[in-house]
Amino acid sequence: MKIRKKTILLAVLNLAAAAAIGIIAGLMYRYRDRPDNDPEGKGRLEDRIAELAESLDARVGVAAVCGDGSAVTYTDSGTDAAVFPMLSVFKFHQALAVCDSLGRAGIPLDEKVTVTRRQLHGNTWSPLRDAHPDGGRFSYRELMEYTLVQSDNNACDILFETVTSPYETERYIHSAGFGDVRIECTEEMMHENLSDCYRNCTSPVSAARLMAWFYSRRDSGPYSAFLWNTMSGCATGQSRIPKYISGKASAIAHKTGTGDVLPDGRIIGVNDLGLVELPDGRYFAIAVFVSDAASTMQECEEFIALAAEAVYEYMAEERIKG
Questions:
Q1: 3-state DSSP call for residue 50?
Q2: Is 225 exposed, middle or buried (0-12, 13-18, 19+ CB in 10 A)?
Q3: DSSP state, residue 117
Q4: Is 88 a catalytic residue?
Q5: How far is the C-alpha of 301 from the C-alpha of 227, rounded, in Å?
Q6: What would the pLDDT profile of 125-173 be if each residue is shown by its tens digit?
Q7: What span, in angstroms and rounded, lies between the C-alpha atoms of 296 and 276?
Q8: One of 70, 88, 220, 224 is an active-site residue; which one?
């Protein structure tokens, strides 16, 4: 069972002044950062996520980071350090590095680069190739829009070629203070060798904290503002984080990741990483990773949607008391 084990801590207090002994029973979860003013609400949220995870035959990791820095985490292995293949979620990490590199070099988003027919591989997901099979001249803005909104694999690898390599992208993310991340492969590498999909990986809590970190800087300049506005228009994964909360939240920005099917029939990964704004101005970042899933794609996406809904309801109903 993946339901988290509870440990009952008994402490005996010797109250000499009253000449009496009382026994206090407390309940401690293995999760961190539970606010003292809201133990019951957060506990119910943790239990709900664990209950939802029981429905899947897969490795599961969930992390939600609230605006005050508190976090809810769940992994079926019981450790926050467990890593999962990011798949196209890493395109968010790449976009952060690309914007940083362009900004430091003083290169505008609208500067154009030449894309050749050779760079538009045919055996991969690429709306850019479908619309422009012979290539052309495209701005960095356009390439990142293809990458983030439509998860275009060719556009992603063109950015790796022209701006930041996988190694340079990883180095930038580490320099920002997020070391629990590996980015080693291009999309082409992952399509040629499925095992390479596991080399671009992160822990859910690291991904969620990175998203929250970015959100706090979204108004710091034109590059960050562009990135926030672009991710708010993500066209993929509408059955994931946005499914049950799109009509309630004031804004949702997210980046999905979806893997191929392994020879044994399991899906490498079904992921979503997002930032959700509540109407009252509060927000949370959420990362949900499902890997090596024998469950169906629909079941994995439904889990992601229900986990996001559970966090939203916790924020909207429970924490409003604080």
A1: helix
A2: middle
A3: G
A4: yes
A5: 25
A6: 999 999 999 999 999 999 999 999 999 999 999 999 999 999 999 999 9
A7: 26
A8: 88
